[in-house]
Prior knowledge:
The complex is a heterodimer.
Chain A: E1 4-13, E2 16-26, E3 31-36, H1 42-50, E4 57-62, E5 65-66, H2 72-78, E6 80-83, H3 95-101, H4 109-115, H5 117-121, H6 132-144, E7 150-154, H7 162-177, E8 181-186, H8 189-195, E9 198-203, E10 206-212, H9 213-217, H10 220-235
Parallel strand pairs in A: 3-8, 3-9, 6-7, 7-8
Antiparallel strand pairs in A: 1-2, 1-4, 4-5, 9-10
Chain B: H1 2-32, H2 39-55, H3 60-85, H4 91-112, E1 128-132, E2 135-138, H5 139-161, H6 163-173, H7 175-180, H8 185-207, H9 215-219, H10 222-231, H11 237-256, H12 267-282
Antiparallel strand pairs in B: 1-2
Helix pairs in contact in B: 1-5, 1-8, 1-10, 1-11, 2-3, 2-8, 3-4, 3-8, 5-6, 5-11, 10-11, 10-12
Bound molecules: adenosine-5'-triphosphate and magnesium ion (MG).
Amino acid sequence: MNALELNKVHIKRGDIPIVHGVDIVAKPGEISVLLGANGAGKTTILEGTSGVIPIASGDIVLEGAQMCKASAGHRARSGIAHVEQGRTIFAEMSTEDNLRVGLHPESGLEQAYDLFPELKTRANVKSAMLSGGEQQMLVIARALLGKPKVVLIDEMSAGLAPVVVARLMQAVRLLADQGLAVLLVEQFANLALDIGDRAYVLRRGEVVYDGSCEILRNDPAMLHHLYLGDMEKDSA
Amino acid sequence: MNSLLTPAMAGLSAGGAYAILGVCAIFTYRLVAVVNFTGAAVGACGAFIMVALVEMGMPLFPAVVLGIAAGALAALFVGFITTIWFSGANGSVKAAVTAALLVGFIALGLRLTGGQHPKRFPDILQGAWLRLADVQITNASIAAIGLAIVLTIAAEQFLNRTRTGLELRALSERPMAAELLGIRVRLLALIVWAIAGAVTAFALMLIAPLRSPDFASLSLLIVPALAAALIGAFKSFRAALFGGLAIGIIEGLASGLVGLNQYRAAIPFIVILLVLLWSQREARWDESR
Ligand SMILES: Nc1ncnc2c1ncn2[C@@H]1O[C@H](COP(=O)(O)OP(=O)(O)OP(=O)(O)O)[C@@H](O)[C@H]1O
Ligand SMILES: [Mg+2]
């Protein structure tokens, strides 16, 4: 069964249609990778899914339950976690207090520290003082402690050093292996394709590829074409 | 000597009230991001309902409890409008909304409570706590100061030590991130409003007998209260506590000095002006975060 299903989802920003009827699924134990150039609508899809913004039409189904009318808070409590673009830490709070905010009664802080031991040594530090990589670990771990069924992760690697990115990718793979469904948005495709199972390529709000990560990984020319298809046409 | 001490002591009870209202103002500002001009008016609603119930023959204790509940309800009304109807609006718009509501509260309150004729407030805590020569400290002023101190400590402890306090801090810092972690954003915001309203209602019941207790002057206690909150930079409960007490004492002293007496109502404005000038210099006043 799918943990999360988006069926024919349309989303507008203001009056402008941005996402035009996408179908996306995320399965327990798998990573669905959502790729696309700047402005393709990746963040918009995640925000529509978690309830940050409303969707214009279509269905959002979490383990069989309709979510598209529910508030963001309700969706979160139902099991949709959203790690937003830009590391939304509570900067005035310590690392540990950040982790406690969404703590599910059945989760414990050790889960976060097992995944990212570096956070433990920084537990009592004001989170604004953490490095970019540590802040990214913090928001991922924080989302995890809410005991979600599916995690939406937006551009976690932006601006981070390659070793740190590799570390994060490895952690996300581990989470999926433990049974979580992951929808991972990345602009830099290769690393995400390495850990992903299923891939979607989004261009101007439409899904132009829906298939295995492996095929894209082994065919860089195809990936390039999918990303830039429009521009090639435009310049021709 | 006593000629200064007596008015200073009288000012202390007013200072306690300013401190309580100032702490409540910071509480609402920090947690639901609204500069609430109705802060004292909602408390006045509660206090006057208590008086009305007592006049109708209800014993004091249940009347006080119902008055506190009424203060909470009045604050919930303001909270509902600012945090639900105007949920998308920025801080200045919300502050303007509460300023408009204050005008409405005062007009309605004066009409319902018989205009500017001071009501007779029952003295909840009668008598003097201490009397030395002709300096006296009333029970009510001790209670006001005590409540101000307890409230300051309680607010700090609540925010720093409880789960709900933690959620409230998260909510005030990043409402959307907090909601995405499953926090019941609206419920918490309304709880904040209700607590502030209940506390203010009780505080006004305590100090109303010490002032000229008509609805408008009680509602306008928000001015010195916001001055106290400003001293705390709308952040520090302790600074607001000391600020409120200091404003009260200065007011009291001014009323004891013949030439200054007429101008004592201007003291909170002078404080606001000075703090604003000072904070401009320190560029503390940016809301850009
Ligand atoms: N608040 C907004 N109001 C109006 N349009 C917006 C808003 N946010 C984004 N857009 C537009 O919606 C489109 C999709 O934006 P979105 O942020 O979803 O893209 P993205 O794929 O996440 O891009 P990036 O890789 O840069 O994060 C863009 O054309 C953008 O200009
Ligand atoms: Mg984006």
